[in-house]
Each structure stands twice: as C-alpha cells, then as structure tokens.
User: Fold this.
Amino acid sequence: MSRIYKILPRSEWTAAQAAGAFNGSAIDLADGFIHFSTGSQAGETARRHFAGVGDLIVLEVEGDRLGETLRWEPSRGGDLFPHLYGPLLTSDVCGVTEAPLGPDGVPQIGDLA
Assistant:
C-alpha cells in the first residue's frame, strides 16, 4: 500500500464532496494532472507551495486504488511524485486532516512518512 497526500484549501474539498469528485486546484488544472506527494515529500510541498495559506486540509489516499490514472513522474530534483490523470473520487479518500499554519507560516501537516 502506498499512501499519497494532497494539500488543498478546505473550500475546494467541500465543493468536491458536493460533486463526488475533485478535479484539481488551479495549478492541477493548468498542468493537466492532480499533484500529490508522498509522506516524505509533503512537508516540503507545504513549505514551498502553501506557506501563508490558511484553512488547508490534507487528503490521504491509497495510491494503489487509483490504478493506471496514477503515474509516478520526476519533478523536484528528479524525485518521483505521484500525479493523477483524472478526477479524484471522494470515495477514494481514506482520511482528511487539518493543516493549521505554524508560527513560521507553514502548514503543519503532521508526520505522514
């Protein structure tokens, strides 16, 4: 089992729950896939892309359930990141946690590794 994580604003998750699927944040839509991180990558993703952004949550997904629409592709420093080419069904989300901003302005995502 390979758990992967998506950091996003709570409002986007609320909309996805109403629709039954998450089609991606603005950057996902621009890039043509939904960006995910592994547990060991998520902290750096939070620091680089979400510093100062409030009201965030972290979705936990069992990557193996996503089938061929999930691809592992090189990104930051050649590290392989999970990218989902298609919508994320809300039924595929196995956990949702809060990601409050820490004193340094970086979302606190806990220990995901």
In short: The mean pLDDT is 94.
